[in-house]
Each structure stands twice: as C-alpha cells, then as structure tokens.
Amino acid sequence: MTQSTWSQHMGYGYEAAHALLIEGVPLTLADRHALRVDAAAEPDAADGTVLSCALSLTDDAITGERLERQRGVASGRAVEVFLAWDELEREGLLADLFSAPAYTARLTTPITDAATTTVEVDDTTGWPSSGTLCIGLETMTYSGKTSKSFTGCTRGVGPLGRTHVHRADASSGYAEVTDRPTRWAGRLAMMYEHLVSPEGRVVPDTWATPAAGICRERWLAVVDGEPAYPARGVRLRLLPIESLLGHAAVGGEVKGRALTWRTGGAGATVYVGASDKITLTVVHSGGTSQSVVPHAPHNVPSNTLDFFRRIVEADANTDLSGETWATVDPSVSAEVVDLGFYAELIITVKHDGSVEDVFATSECWFLDPVSLPGDRGERHVTVRFPLRPPGSPPFASGWLPVEIAPSEDGEYPELPASGYAVVTMGDGQEIIAYDDVIAQPLYPRWVALHVSQRLVGTNGIYGPRSVDLWGSEGDLAIVAGAVGLVYEAIEILLTSSGLGDRGSYDTAPHGYGLGLPAAYIDTASLRRYPLDQWCIVASDSQSSVADLVGGWLVLYELCLVQRRTSADTGDIKLAVVSTAVGAEEAGTDLDADRVDELSVSNILIGSPPGTPEPVESPNEVRVARGVLTLEAATTERDPGRVQDQGAVRWELVAPAISESAARDASRALIELAAGNLASFAVPADLDLQAGDALPLTAAHPSTYDRSSGTRAPSSIAARVLGLERGLVTRVGAATTLLDPGTTGTRWLCPVAVVTGKTGDTVDVDEDTRDTRWFAAGEKVLLYNPGAEATESELLVVDSVATDGITFTSTPSSWVGAGTVVTYPGYSYGSSRQQDGYMYIDDAARWR
Amino acid sequence: MKVPWTNGAWPVPAGFLYAWVSTRVPGYGAVDVASSVYTAAAGYYRGDDFVGAVDAAAPGTWAVDDRGQVRTTQSSLDVTAVDRSLWVMGFGREVGDVETVTTWYAPYVSPIIIPHRGATWEAVDLSRDAVDIDTDATMRALGDVWGAARVWRWTVDLDPYAYAAFRQGWCMRGRVTLEGATADELASDEPGGALTGQVVAVEGVAWRSARALTQARVSLIVVGGGS
Question: From the list A38, A195, A683, which residue is nearest B95 (CB)?
C-alpha cells in the first residue's frame, strides 16, 4: 500500500492539532497551546491574523462526506465547535468579536463592483479616521473617511476573504456598516490539521498555512447560523461546503420572473395625413457600410429617445403623402433606410411638423424587408410587423421588447444587463442570449433586450423543437442559472458572485451563483466526465445547485464532493467523482501517494464491519428535459423488472439534455446491477476519501464476489461512497460500494434503414431517430436484406446527423432505399458497441 | 525528573522500551556543533539507532551506554539545540540552548530509550478480553480484523524517572520495541528476544506502591508485536 507523506507521519505516532480560519475574521483559532519542534515558541498565526487558542473540539466533532447517488451532490455532517469564554477573555478578543459594534453606519449606495474602494454611507461621525469595517460577510480596511464615505478601502480582507455585492436597500441588516462582524452565517471556514509529535510539539511553524506533509487543509465548511452562547463558550455550527449546493438558493426573488412576450399581433395603426411625413427610424444589425446618421428626432421626448438610444435615424424623411407610397426595400433604398433582416423599425408620423405618434415601441422587431401596405390616400394605414427571425442559426443581433411582470411587491424587477432568457411558446422553447438591456424610465414595465444569439447551445439537439415562428403570445423568463456545457454551467453556478472576480466563469449576475472562489473548484474533475453537453440550468424561482445540475450528475453516476487534491497540503476543492465501482479515473488529481487499496492492514481491529446493505438500481428512470414551463421528458424502464418488483423510479432533471443522451444514460442507470455496501472502521493514518476507487484486498468474510462465486475474495473492486472521521479521535468509518460482479443488461444491435443516398451520405428518416445509435469514427455494416452475400460492406462513419449518416468513403452503388445500417462484426466493433450490445460469442455477429 | 545516579553508573536495567523516531519529519535529527548543523540521515530509527544516526552525522561521539544513558564527547565545542533531538536523547535542552561540551552526559532518561525493571507480555483474545482500543487517537491496525489479530498486552515496570520519560509520549504511540534479554527479534529460538509493534492503547498505569510511588507498572496494548 502506498501512503502519503502525511499518512506516513501519522503512522510514526504523530497526531494532529487543528486550526480554523473563518472568512473575514482576523483570527487563527487553534485548538491548543503548543510549542514548536524547532523553537520554544508557539506557531505563528496565519498571515494577517491574530492567534487565539480558544478553539475547542470534542470527540463528537466528526466530519464526513457521503456520495449521494440519487442526488448528485454529497451530503455531510455538521460539526459544532466551541470558542472558550475564558480563553477569549484572556486574549482580549471576546468584546472584539462577539459584542455589539461600537460604530455603525448605513450604506447609501450599493456596491456592485469588486473594484469599488469608496463606501458611501449616511454618516461616519465617530468612526476612526482609518481602520476596519464590515458589511455583511465582507471585511474591508479603509484609509480615510469623509463625512459620508469611507475611502481607500481594501476589499475582502482577512482569511478566506471574498468580495461581495452589497445592496443599500437590504432590510436584513446587510446594509449596515459596522466596525466588527455582526453576521456569521454563510461565512466560509477552513479547518487545517497540523502534525504534532508524540511529545506534543507542533511541527509546522505557522498555524493554518499548508506545508507539505506537516500542515494541510482538512475540511471546507460554511458557518451555519449565528453564534450561540452556551455556558462553555461561543458555539459555532459548521456545515460542509456541499451543504451550500443542496440548500442555498440560486436566483433572486426578482430574477427569473416570468416575463410576458408580447408580439404585437395585430400591429399598429399609423395615421398619416395628406401632408404628413413619416420618419423611418432604423435600428440596424450593425456594419459600417450603411449611410445612416445618428439623429435625435425633433420633439421626440427625451425619455423615448433614451429608450431607443441605440436607434439611428435614416437620413430621410420620406414623404408618404399623395402619390408617394413606396415599398421600402433595402436593396433599392439603402441610402434612405436599410431594413436588413435584423433591423428594427420605428415609425414616427409627423403631423404638420409636430410629433404625434411614435410607434414600434412594442410592436416592431425582427423584420423582413417590409412594405407599407394600404391604399393610396388613405389616412389610416395599418402596418404589420411580423415577428419573423430567420429560420436557422446563426443569428445576428436584434432588439426584443419585453413586458415585465411585476414582482409580488408590485415593483418591476431590474434585469441583469446581460444573460440568457428562455422563450416558451406552446410546445416550443428556446434560449436566447442578450447582451444589453434598455430600460424605459417612464414605462418600467417595458424593456428591450438586445438579443445577441438565438437557439443558444442547441444546434439542433435541444428539443422538442425551437420556437421557429415567434408570432403568438409567449413567455419569456430570465435564466436563473447558466447556459453552456454542463461543466461550465456548474462552474458558473458555483463561482458567480455578480462581481466577476472569481475567475473566468464568474459571469452570472448577483444572486445567480454561490460566489465561491475558483480556487475551490476542481475544474479538471469537471472535465473528466461526459459533462461536455449543452445544458440550460434555468429556474424561475430560487433553486439549489443540486436542483439545477444534480440530475445531470446522477445520470452519469457522478457526484460533487469536497476532496483533498493534494495528500500533503490538502488543497480542498469541490470535485466531481464517479459513484460507480471501477478503476480510478485517469487524470485524477491526487498524487501518486494516495491509498491504492483497502487491505487487511488498514481496517481497524475491534470494529466489526457493518452489515452489508444491498444497493438497488432503478428499473425506471424519468428524465425531465424541458426548461421552466416546458414539459418534455423521456422515460426508460425495464418492463420485466417493473412488473416483477414494482416501479423503482428515479426522477431526474437534466434541462436541455438531448433525448438520445437522456435515454442512453437512463438505460445505463437501469443496467446497474445491485451491489453491496460494506462499512469498515479505518485507522487514523489512512488517507481515504469519499470517491476513491480502490480494490478491497482484505478477503473479508462480509464480501462476496458474485462473478466467480467466491466468498471472501482476495480482491474485489470497491468505491468509497462515504467516509467519516473524527477530528479529535481521528478514527474513520468508510462505507464502500462493492462490485456486484454481474454483467449489465445488453441491448439488441440497432439498425437504421436508408431512405436515399447523396455522395458519401445516406439519408435516414429523421422521425425514427435511428441515427443516434451511431457515432463518428465507428465502423458500421451496410447490407441489403436478402442479398447479404454480395451486397454488404463495412464503412467508417464520418459524422452523424439526425437525418443521415456520412461516411469517410462513398457507399457502393447498391446502397439505396431499403439498405440497412447496423453494427459490424464484433471484432470490428468499438468498445462502446462491444460493451453495451448483445453479440453471439466470437462468431462476429450481433443479434 | 533527572536520574539520581552518577553519570555512567545508572542502575542496570532488565531491558529497554524503545520508541521509534523518524528523521523524515522536521524537528528530530539535527544538532549544531560549533555553529554547524548536522542532520541524521533520513530514516525511521529505533531509539538507540537514532542516537547512532546522529553519531554518524555529527562530529564527536554520540552513544548510549548499557544503562540507557546517552552521552556525547566533543573537543570542548559548543553544542546547540536546533530542534528536539537533544531533548529526545535525554539532554533536556530546549531549542536555542547552548552547551560547551567535552563529555556531556544526558541527565534525563531519553523518552525513546527507556530502561525498564522487567516486562511481561501476553496475547489478548479480543473475543473474550475487554480491551478498550477505541479511544486512542492514533490507533492503527496490523493483522486480521475478524479473529486472527495479533494483539498483545505488554506490562512494563518502570522506575519513576523512567516513567517520567515514558509520559513524554514517545512510547505511548507509534512503533515501539520491547527489548528483553537480547536485542534480537523474539523467535522460538530467541525466547528473550525483542518485540516490535504499534501502540494502540495505554491500558493503564499502576504504582507498585501507591504511597512510595517507587515503581510504575505500565500496561500497553500493542498490535503486531510478537509472532
């Protein structure tokens, strides 16, 4: 068995001391007074903090993570820590931390930028000329002040310091500026462990500062609730960081409210007098070739102008009176007005030089080349503006009018300046991206979103179908979550703070993410698994990360859990690990010293294993694929098992997953054979973690290898699903999932029937969805039924579309309608085909 | 507690209880002689071998006599404690302390080389013998879980000054060796040989005389010791 350096040291009889850092609190909280091995002095406090030895841990302080196979996010135990009264008093810290603030002020201007260095408040009277201030969870230092502001602020100071968005209108006390922490709930906390020699000397020279093999990060947590004050000291309850993923809300109360999509329907009526002129104002799709001149229309109310501040007016006031009705055609009237596909049209009718009507504030958007119908001379002209974006991506930009639904308090929410929205019409749904919002101060219910992309992330895989004709009433909801590849969406949800300073995925607005520093995310693990599919994690109400992405993770037998990524320094991160029994995944971010087996020598004496528990796989999996109000789902079931056992149903949510991917993953879950959970007590020096895959080589009598019918097998594959370990006792309890030793269900070899051929491509009826069984790079067999002896050949798939398969070479001339495409002989099959599909021994035939 | 005997003339022990020390962990294995720091080779040493490793690395002589007292002989040089090495060898010097040395005897029993007055050992039957091994912070296991475990109870008699060294912790956890009549490993042809194992619990301490406190009887639960 290999061991980490830390583990080896523990095996020498060393033990661990602990220190705790809490976000923004300038203390290193150590659990003992102890001298160092290299000096007759205590270890120093972590950088920027003061040492307090008030931390008290009890035998009940047990950390633990358990992978949740049906939730996708690990669960964990809460740990209560105490800060001893006497010690805090002796150190003079009690009043500094746990008493009412000496100075307070109230934030008057929200802080929405991480670079903000001036905090504007109602009154700074009495405050020191420089010092420390706290707002919510953030601690700052300031170097100066005015009567109504603190200047020269350094943001997010203190251990684990983060910047935060601060609202000035917060009613919960988060707009209060104080000279000491008043809010504890939600602060990050990191527990560190330090090597202590058998004679009680601390090996590292600094608390809470990782050093290879002698000090490492132990546990990342979040403070749960405000401190309690029992007799023995201040009590803080800590929850593992995973708890944020399961409980914390993503999305705000005003964010993601359903918005009404208004299309204008019947159009607008334009009154045109005999001598009137109509101004065609164009919001065009960009480009520099158009000869348009920015212009502020005379007498147009400034607020209206502001609403359309991006509008440029064509260099013409077309006289439409009398005989001059004309079709506005960009191809012939470019010098007057360019109505490109993505232009928008504002019609202003001038009566005798004065503005009376300004249209198109809500009715006119993506336009095809527009003609202005109506009979000559009529005063009433009806102009229809069909909402007709082009039928296939990519799209250029355009403005989209949105009528906002008021929130419960009757106010109209302020939309994020950019982001994504879900448009739902009937049974159609698509995601749009927008990069700008124009608010109309006088009419707050109306905004215009600048659409930068339609059918985001779909490229045809997202169904049931896109909104291909926006001509009816629909709903629009701002995405509370993320759009992108699944792993990107997870990173967005985990890191987004509204400030953009948590790394490249801190892109969602305030309230749409957890705001965790990117350093706490094991990005490599996110990219190790099939999470490179498009997803839409959207919610019109507050949701947890587990709600939004857990279904995706469950589908692929994955789980988010905190793990050490370095055995010697800890480097705790949230990582995705597999929950399936099997070999450790390539590229796992643990060093070579990690435990590579669970053997006799690291199962604790005197602790009999727990009774093995069977683990059942589902026989029915329903995957909800729609977003928000759209109901779209796939259900895979094993009818035989359902009939015999009753339904063992897993209901998962994986918004925007393609139907084929959902079915494939669902089948894989159903194929999971039942396994066994076995629990063992493990010693202090065993560096085991939840998620580790390793063989159990203990020949333990509670294990059984079903594949070979062996009792107490000398080696059986296992996955550590859970590990608990006492902070003080250091004794661990590992729960392992053992290899069920059975062969999963195999599927009949699929076929697709050719309907036609063009060049290297054969056509397949799209409605059958049969091309989904084939993949680029794989060999396939083409044959004509009844003439296999002569009309049969192997080809390599170049690409697969929903309605056809393209090969790397041209199919033979006999390939045509009725030709069957199926898997090749077994020996030619890919591992995917060989692993999942039925075949007849070595006869190179699929059934 | 200093040993109340003349240097080099401590009572003859019945054997030794050794702790093992790893010089791979910072804090143990370095001495400063005449302003130069010498570090023992990386290794995991039984107590007496640790002194030998220091001797191999540092100038002068560093040795343990047959009574368990460590001494060093230098040419009137300054020996400075730069870590806990001098302390665990029984010199009782804290980091930074300087001693000008010709021949320097450790006044304390080394907590890694503890002379004992007698020792016995017996196998523990986990299925019948109530042994509290669930409370030790560094418990580890060697052996089979379900009945074939080699768990031993060592009972060691210690003089008060030796017990003071024991209490410093090095023989309460980690690997320990109990040496009887010979330093060789216990075997069928070496019945008085040494036992080595991992301490999983200190079962108890009893004074032979509760009033005089003349001798302490320490009971250790050790895994893997013996064959």
Answer: A38
